[in-house]
Amino acid sequence: MNNTFGQHQHPHEHQQMLQTQQHQHQQVATVLCCNCGTPIDGSTGLVMCYDCIKMTVDITEGIPREANISFCRNCERFLQPPGQWIRADLESRELLAICLRRLKGLTKVRLVDASFIWTEPHSRRIRIKLTVQGEAMSNTIIQQTFEVEYVVIAMQCPDCARSYTTNTWRATVQIRQKVPHKRTFLYLEQLILRHNAHVDTISISEAKDGLDFFYSQKNHAVKMIDFLNSVVPIKSKKSEELISQDTHTGSSTYKFSYSVEIVPICRDDLVVLPKKLAKHLGNISQFVLCSKISNTVQFLDPTTLQTADLSPSLYWRSPFSALADVSQLTDFIVLDVDPTGISKGKRILADITIARTADLGINDQVYYARSHLGAILHAGDTVAGYFIANSNYNSELFDGLNIDYVPDVVLVKKLYQRKTKKNRNWKLKRMAKEHKDIDAAQDYSSKAQKQDMERAEKDYELFLQELEEDEEMRQTINLYKNNEAAAAAQIAAAANGMEEDEDPDAPQIDIDELLDELDEMTLDDPSEEQPQMQQPNM
User: Fold this and answer.
1) Are strands 125-137 and 140-155 parallel, antiparallel or unpaired?
2) DSSP character for 189?
3) Do 381 and 500 have their domain in common?
4) 164-194: pLDDT as tens digits
5) Is the pLDDT of residue 411 over 80?
6) Measured between alpha carbons, how far is 197 from 189 in angstroms, rounded to an integer?
7) Does 402 share its domain with 313?
8) What is the pTM of this model?
9) How many C-beta neighbours within 10 Å does residue 150 have?
10) Same domain, 145 and 171
11) What span, in angstroms and rounded, lies between the C-alpha atoms of 102 and 84?
12) Is residue 533 in some structural domain?
C-alpha cells in the first residue's frame, strides 16, 4: 500500500519541484534597470533597459549636424571633393550621394535610410533626414534618426573661372550658314536649347553668319558636332594649331577648330535641282520647293506632290544654291480652287486661279497655278508665291530648263491676319539670355546696324509664324507660356472683343503644348538680375 501510494504521489511532487526551480530561475535572471528601475533580463549582462540606453547613449556622436556644399552658379554644378564637379538636380540621387560623402563619421555607423526634407529652392539650404544603426553597448544595437542641414555656398568652378580669361579654350565649333535670312539658324538655336547641347560651352561669340562655340576639352566639341549632324544638314572640317611643345617629355598642346557649314537652303526656298541629281532622287522635277529641313533637305514638287530627301553628303558633292528665298515672295488673291482629286497626307493637289494683289483695280490679269495648298486655300484667301513670269534669275540651272514647263507662279503658303507679337500667349527662350558668356555687347547706333536688327526681327517673326503653322516642327522644340501677354490679351478682348484685323482661321498654338518656366527653376537666385544682352543675329 505504501509503495502504491508513493507511486501515485510522485508525479505531483515532480511538477511542484519543476515549478519551484523555474520560479527560482526567474528570480535569479531578473534585474532592475539602474536608471528607471524597470525589471530587465539579467542574463544579457546589461544594467540598463533598452529605452534608457536610447536616451543616454548617442551613436551619432561625431557626425556633424551642419555642413557646407559648394555650388557653381554659372554652370550649376556641385563640388564632389576633391575636385570633381557634378551636375545634379535638387532632391536627386546624385545630390544625395554628394551630401552623404560630405558627412564625417558616417562610416562608424550603418546607414539605414536617407531622404530629403523639403526646403524652398532659393533658400540656399538643403536638409536631409538620416536613420542609422550602431552598437551602443556590448551586444546592443540601437537605431536613431537625426537631421543634417547643408548650407549651399555659391562659388565659381575652375572651368567657369577659365572661361573669363583669354586663351583658355582648347576647341571651338564655328557654325555658319551663308544665306540672307536665318530661319534655319533660329530653328537650330531652339534645338540646342531643348537638348541642352551647349551645356559644356565655356563661351559663345557672335559671328557674321552664325555663332562660335568654345570648349575647354576636345571631346566636348566633338559631342557638339555629333549633335549638329543629327539635327541639321552640315559638313564639318577639322584643323589644329600647335600651342606649346615640351621637348623633354615629348608632350604637345593643340587647339582644335571645327568649321561647320549648314546647307545654304532653307524652308520654302525655290530650288532648281541639277538634272542628274533630280533623276537620282526618284526622277523628281528639277523645279521644286524646300519643304522641310532636318538632318536632310526635303524637296517637294508642288505640281505632283512628289517628295525627295537629299542627304548632306550627296549635296556637298555638287553643291548648288537656292533660286529664290522667302524675301522675294509676292502676294496673290485666290479667285477659284479646283481640286484635282490627288492627295498625299495633308496635302491636296488643286488648280488655283489667282490674281496679283497689286493688280486689283488696275487690270484683270489672272494666273493659273497647280499647287499643293488645295486643302487650305479658298476663294478670297491671300497666298504668297514666287512670281516666276515677272522675275529675272541669274542661274545656269534655271536657264537650262525648258521654259514651256516652267510655271508662271509657284504658290508657297497661305497668309493670315495674325495677332501682334505682344499678344502671343507663348514665347521662346533665346540663347543670348540663356548663356551669360555670349558676346553680344554691340553698338547698334549706325544705320547699317539698325537695318541688321530690323532684318533679324523680321526673320524671327517669320520663324514664329512657321511654328504656328507647323505642328510637327513645334513638337521638336520647347514653347513656354507667356503669362503677361495672355493677361493683356484677355483684358483687350474683354474691352474691345476680337480685333478687326485678326483672322479667326489663323493657326493657334494650344496651351497644352506650352511649358511653364517655373518648372525649370534652378538654384539661381531670382533676386539677382541677369545682364541684359542683345539677341544674336541668327
Assistant:
1) antiparallel
2) H
3) no
4) 665 578 899 999 888 877 777 788 888 988 8
5) yes
6) 10
7) yes
8) 0.64
9) 20
10) no
11) 13
12) no
